[in-house]
Amino acid sequence: xxxxxxxxxxxxxxxxxxxxxxxxxxxxxxxxxxxxxHSKEKKGFFTIKSPDETIFDNSIKAKEACPVKxxxxxxx
Length: 76
Fold this sequence. Notes:
By secondary structure, the protein is an alpha+beta fold. Helix content is 20%, strand content 33%. It has one domain: 2-Layer Sandwich (Alpha-Beta Plaits), CATH 3.30.70.20. It has helices at 16-20, 56-65, and strands at 2-6, 25-27, 34-36, 40-42, 45-50, 71-75. The chain is built from two helices and six strands, in the order βαββββαβ. The protein is globular. The longest helix has 10 residues, at 56-65.
């Protein structure tokens, strides 16, 4: 299981996450911030839980590239 969390309010719209993990992230045309696809929001944190282990590597790359460190990725 892979758990990805995005603290969207702090996003600066750099687009690194979209370039590195396009299956999980896209940029909003409304405000230019990253959107974690198929996520659920709770108190400003957007989270997905996926049984697809193949998304882990690209998600870690996105986490490491994020200049404001608002992406968290865990594997359980």
